[in-house]
Here is the input.
Amino acid sequence: MPEPSTESFALDPVLRRECEEAIRAGSKSFLAASMLLPGSTRMAARALYAFCRATDDLVDESADPAEGLAEIRARLDAIYRGTPRDHPADRAFVAVVEHYALPRALPDALVEGFEWDVGNRTYRDCNELCAYSARVASTVGVMMTLIMGVCDRAVLARAADLGLAMQLTNIARDVGEDARRGRIYLPLDWLEEAGIDREAFLANPEACPAMRATTERLLNTAQSLYARAMTGIAGLPLTCRMAIRSAALIYREIGREIEKSGHDSITLRAHTSTRRKLELIAQAASTPFLFQPVSTEPAHPEVRFLVEAAAAGRSQAPRGVDAKAGRMIELMARSEDRRRTASFNV
Here is the structure.
């Protein structure tokens, strides 16, 4: 695998605008969080988002999803040859791939997740659901971590945890919407334990007590993942921590909105207001989280392949302008923290 570049990442103005438009149209939460990232990291994150969005749309909007998947794989082949198709998202993503030396296994896993969706796959238990979530969400978290210049396995594992937590939150929020499209992502063994007949529920989705309890169970699983994932933020460059913590807090808030509704995701669809997002961003700026230790718990079994793929051959993280500045700020902050502690102890 080639080494990542030590220069600051940049895109030409046209591609930059295309990526910005993609994120504005696709995700207000991601947009809000990305605005807090330092310049070149923000640009690379938006390029990554634009490619993920474009591939997702290609599958969703294709008359034949199988053809859409084949097209995505062909475009990835071209990107990893360094000869991208003439699509703005592809031309932006090839710059990210080459600058940060992103392993092909990561976007390949994302496409595999799309393939599982096309096949209307169901998930027998929570581990199988996490295998799906690893592909469609943890892949992005791991790629983002590499973009931020970090390849430590513990931090990558926590980024993958955050991807799992966010995707489980998505699934909890969309239970009713998915059912009306003939889809169910909740673990089948949980439905059986709750006495929910899958086919009857799909035919007539109702926010019955059993489904509310199952949704609550999924959110409890997500909550434990958020708690572990948040410790990984301390392993990121200081200049990136507020953005990632904001994204985590905003997504976690969706689960709290579902809780407020009595875990009814059938007749209601939870969302976080702009005002509440701003409050959470302000909360993300608080200092206690900055230096807490990163949890060294092993990666979830279903994300280990992503962590290993990302860490393989990456003994040294890229250190562009943003990473160097972040390291300098972090050293200064630690020095100030030690000074205050010493003054307090006198």
In short: The chain has 16 helices and no strands. The mean pLDDT is 86.
